Amino acid sequence: MVKKYFFQLIFLYLFFSKEVFAAESGGMPQLDPEFWVSQIFWLTLVFGTLYIVLSKLILPKISANLELRKSQIQENIEAADKQRKDSELKLKEYDDIILKSKLESKNLFNETREKTLKNINIKRDSLEKQIDEEIKKAETEIDQLRKSAPEKINKIAIETSSEILKNLIGTEINNSSISAIVDDLYKKNGGKYYGN
Amino acid sequence: MAANPMAQFEVYRIGPEIKIGAFDISFTNASLFMLVSSLAILVIFNLGAKKNSMLPNKIQLLAELSYTFVSKMISDTAGSKAKPYFAFIFSLFMFVLFCNMFGMIPYTFTVTSHIIVTFVLAAFIFIGVTIIGFIKHGFGYLKLFVPSGVPIVLLPLIVVIEIISYLSRPISLSVRLFANMMAGHTMMKVFGGFVISLGIVGGWLPLTFSVALTGLEILVAFLQAYVFAILTCIYLNDALNLHH
């Protein structure tokens, strides 16, 4: 309703307003050639100047700025790339060093162990030899002792018997007769006491 | 003056009358706004080009974005061969854009709403492109009027149509910009007149229209500058890379 009223108003306005019709009668100022030459002249002058200043002074600067920024960014990217590669190389080197030192320490450990084992073996061998010798010595000693034991016992027996007899009887008795009895007894029972 | 929607397009002398021979080249309001637009362009882009920091400030960003915008527009439509004409197309785009935009400020004069201005620009582009075409391709440039793959019977007709369309380029280019600017500004003026004549009761609707139209006209101001520049690129493309 309001809209209808409004458009009626516009219509009436257009119909009765002399001022609007004045525009129609006035025509387009654009088609009036009075200032055409002036406009062409000033357009050529102003636009020409604008073009020359822009193309010679301002645009090269902007272009250079853009190029500079582009190249700088590129450079930075390249530098970052290089540094990354460097650090990767360093990391690898470091890893190598660690690996090498690990291997070295392992080798060292193995070597030392072998050496120590060898040392231990040598020492044990020599000790065993010593022990063997000692045993042998002891065995020969025992053997000797065992061999000499019956004689000594016999001698002791003879001496003891003669001493006892002396005490019992009061007179000295010839040792040879006692030794003959001891020998006889020994021959009869010796095997029972000495096992050989 | 205020009520006449065409009054805003009137050209008048500022200062004394200057004459060279029979020609009147007085400084007018049109000249003034050409000068203002150009100076604004120069000031803005000079500020934008002066300092080069890795992180651009606002004005530098504006200048560089405009640069890349126009540069991309040219390389997209006319290829890499159009690089030497970058400065011209950039100046053209910026000049038309700033003239259009300055026209959007109330009580200013719209330089591009005059057919003579747009026609001079369009004619210059037309003549320049034609010369470039003949320099690059010699008389082979005339092959532009003979599209490939057209039946022989139709050829005479097609050639005539092509020639007419080629010759009408400066007219269509200039009239498109001029008519758009004039129509938009006239319409805004008419709606503005309605606001006054309908008063406090009925003036609100045309006022709303006027506000909406202002937004539309700013869009048109940018769009027409863009269209003007991109059509120049397309014509240049025809001259540089002959397809037919």
Explained architecture:
- The complex is a heterodimer of chains A (196) and B (244).
- Chain A is built from four helices and no strands.
- With 196 residues, chain A is mostly helical.
- Chain A is rod-shaped, with a radius of gyration of 69 Å.
- The model of chain A is unreliable at 18-25 (pLDDT under 50).
- With 244 residues, chain B is mainly alpha-helical.
- Helices cover 69% and strands 2% of the residues of chain B.
- Chain B contains seven helices and two strands; from the N terminus they run ββααααααα.
- Chain B has a two-stranded antiparallel ribbon.
- In chain B, helix 3 packs antiparallel against helix 7.
- The longest helix of chain B has 37 residues, at 204-240.
- The model of chain B has no long low-confidence stretch (mean pLDDT 90).
Overview features:
heterodimer, A: mainly alpha, 4 helices, 0% strand, rod-shaped, B: 244 residues, mainly alpha, two-stranded antiparallel sheet, globular
